[in-house]
Design a protein that fits this description.
The protein has 339 residues and is of the alpha+beta class. It has 2 domains: 103 residues, Gcn5-related N-acetyltransferase (GNAT) (Aminopeptidase, 3-Layer(aba) Sandwich); 182 residues, Gcn5-related N-acetyltransferase (GNAT) (Aminopeptidase), CATH 3.40.630. The chain is built from 10 helices and 18 strands. The strands form 3 sheets. Strands 1, 2, 3, 4, 5, 6, 7 and 17 form an 8-stranded mixed sheet that branches. Strands 8, 9, 10, 11, 12, 13, 14 and 18 form an 8-stranded mixed sheet that branches. Strands 15-16 form a two-stranded antiparallel sheet. Helix 4 links the parallel strand 5 and strand 6. The protein is globular and about 65 Å long.
């Protein structure tokens, strides 16, 4: 097998060439191929770019894998994003070698959210575990006409809003308040481990999306972080929980909070994609699992462009799925990004 292809961590000077490669080899007019500011926001890391690239004898890029780090730790957990090799690259296993190069860098965890169902066998052959996120939602029973999702009246009639006040205080938080008030170090064992730098960049400084970041506190102590995003479409709106971090018991007491948010914004529903959280806790907060392959209940995932269809989100990870430390959410990796 030829080893003429040279692998390296990308540098700032490689950005234009990587963007061109994505446009030609991955997907034309992909946001990472046409928006350099967003490309740098997602992948710039000091003098480096979070991509492994392969160059052939002519020094042309013929393979890439992008990644996003969950913290500033030396062995930070990493999500892979764009993984592509050119045809006729002269090396039958170049794609695997690029992925293995990333693994060899010492990251505690390598994973990806949003893999294609047709790639699952490949990841499992390479020794990774694969699974899919659970999808839940709470319908807003005060919205009579749904313009985004499909929610039958019989389901709304079975849904009731909890008017009990929770013992937890839920309020919006600034980045500085989060930095000084949340005990990130207590969650070093969580997979992935996310630190303040991650939350600050990913949500507070996002150049396109506006996220609402809430602190869930008890007796003045921040126990959990909740991240929401409102999506507006077709003269209507929905709310999406894209991340949750910290103690999970409080989540089961948030139905009143969620319903008030929906009523205030007149959103059709609030939804949640996740893996690893206790399902009883989720359902205690009023969430209903979205049935697979349902034509009656439809809670869309894609909005750019809009697709009125229930979508399964698959992932791979280099840990056993029996590892109780794993928590995966909608915004992990590059899932919650503009197209």
């Amino acid at each position: 097998m030829s080893k003429k292809n040279e692998l390296s961590i990308a540098k700032i000077k490689d950005v234009d060439e990587i963007m061109k490669y994505i446009d030609l080899e991955w997907k034309k007019d992909h946001i990472l191929s046409i928006n350099k500011d967003f490309f740098n926001f997602q992948h710039e890391n000091g003098e480096n770019i979070n991509f492994i690239i392969s160059r052939n004898e002519d020094q042309k890029i013929n393979g890439i894998i992008g990644y996003i780090l969950a913290s500033d730790d030396l062995k930070a957990d990493a999500w892979t994003t764009t993984w592509k090799v050119s045809r006729n690259n002269g090396e039958s296993m170049l794609g695997v070698r690029i992925l293995e190069c990333l693994r060899s860098m010492g990251h505690r965890t390598i994973m990806s959210v949003g893999i294609g169902i047709d790639t699952i066998d490949i990841y499992e052959y390479l020794g990774y575990s694969t699974g899919k996120l659970k999808h839940f939602f709470i319908p807003n029973i005060e919205v009579n006409t749904n313009k985004i999702g499909s929610i039958p009246n019989w389901l709304k009639e079975k849904t009731s809003f909890d008017d009990k006040k929770t013992k937890y205080e839920i309020s919006k938080i600034t980045s500085e308040e989060l930095k000084n008030g949340f005990p990130f170090e207590l969650y070093k064992s969580r997979i992935p481990y996310k630190d303040w730098d991650y939350f600050n960049k990913r949500y507070f400084l996002h150049p396109v999306f506006n996220y609402e970041i809430y602190a869930i506190t008890l007796n003045g102590e921040i126990l959990s972080i909740l991240v929401l995003r409102e999506v507006n479409f077709n003269s209507s709106s929905i709310l999406r929980i894209v991340d949750y971090y910290g103690e999970e018991i409080p989540f089961g007491s948030l139905n009143n909070f969620f319903t008030k948010l929906m009523v205030r914004s007149q959103s059709e529903y609030i939804d949640l994609y996740c893996y690893g959280m206790n399902e009883d806790t989720i359902k205690s907060s009023g969430f209903i699992e979205v049935p697979e392959n349902s034509d009656e209940i439809i809670i869309p995932n894609y909005f750019e462009p809009f697709l009125k269809k229930n979508i399964q989100i698959y992932f791979y990870i280099d840990h056993s799925l029996e590892d109780s430390r794993i928590r995966i959410f909608k915004a992990d990796g590059d899932q919650d990004r503009p197209n």
